[in-house]
Automatic annotation (TrEMBL):
Organism: Novosphingobium kunmingense
Keyword set includes Membrane: no
Protein name per UniProt: Prolyl 4-hydroxylase
Cofactor(s) listed: L-ascorbate
Domain Fe2OG dioxygenase: start-end pairs: 120-229
Gene3D superfamilies in alphabetical order: q2cbj1_9rhob like domain (2.60.120.620)
GO-annotated molecular function: dioxygenase activity; iron ion binding; L-ascorbic acid binding; oxidoreductase activity, acting on paired donors, with incorporation or reduction of molecular oxygen
Length: 235
């Protein structure tokens, strides 16, 4: 916390060390400059976090192609997320095939939009939520005191930016709710959301707590891509 940090929000994690803080500040500054200069990017109203949106980032046809890939790979989320129990993230998810040329094209478009190196991004993950399924409130940044962070520190460090694309409209429910910001975004086909998981000073921003609220009617499909502070993976 610095003198200028906002007060702690209502819901937050216990404080933890942030070894990647300087790198997170650099990423935040770099991405902010890029998104602010892009006329197609809109900053959403939130005081203590940077959340951006782009309409029609993907065409309907492109969304359908990703939906088909997700239907081909999705498994219950808890199989991928060792840290979550099954009530926390009840959707189905799966890493899409990074070597697929269409997936690569979409990933590169996201890289270009936010202006970070392709190598810093994790493989895009697809998610499918049926009625009643949800992703409860969480931070995308790693809690660095957790045992898994030892591994993550060696393969790219902290998560910086999140980019997420809604692949379809959902009849009811399935909003992305930023509970500490009073911001709730309904799924809209083709819309990309991106947010900085760090504060302006590179701190782990507790205001980015968010949830995928339960789908009430219909099915929700999204892809999510997380960027690290350096090359992701064992490279
Ligand atoms: O489903 C949503 O709207 C949110 C998904 C999410 O938070 C994530 O994938 O990290
Ligand atoms: Fe998330």
């Amino acid at each position: 916390m610095t003198k200028d940090s906002p007060p702690l929000p209502l819901r937050h994690y216990p404080p933890c060390p942030n070894p990647d803080r300087a790198a997170m500040k650099l990423v935040g500054d770099r991405v902010r400059a890029r998104l602010e200069a892009d006329p197609l990017v809109q900053r959403l109203p939130a005081e203590h976090a940077e959340v951006w949106a782009v309409g029609d980032f993907l065409s309907g046809e492109e969304c359908d192609r990703l939906i088909a890939l997700i239907d081909g790979t999705a498994v219950p989320s808890q199989i991928l997320d060792h840290g979550y129990n099954e009530v926390w993230r009840t959707s189905y998810s799966g890493d899409v095939d990074r070597n697929d040329s269409f997936v690569r094209m979409v990933e590169r478009r996201i890289d270009d939009l936010i202006g970070l190196p392709h190598e810093w991004g994790e493989t895009m993950q697809g998610q499918r939520y049926a009625p009643g399924q949800e992703f409860r409130e969480h931070m995308d940044w790693f809690w660095t005191k957790a045992p898994y962070f030892k591994t993550e520190a060696k393969r790219g460090g902290q998560r910086t930016y999140t980019a997420m694309i809604y692949l379809n409209d959902v009849e009811e429910g399935g909003e992305t709710a930023f509970l500490n910001l009073g911001l709730s975004i309904p799924p809209q086909r083709g819309v990309l959301l991106a947010w900085n998981n760090a504060g302006l000073d590179g701190s782990l921003n507790q205001f980015t707590l968010h949830a995928g609220t339960p789908v009430v009617k219909g099915t929700k499909y999204i892809v999510t891509k997380w960027y690290r502070t350096r090359t992701w993976g064992n490279a």
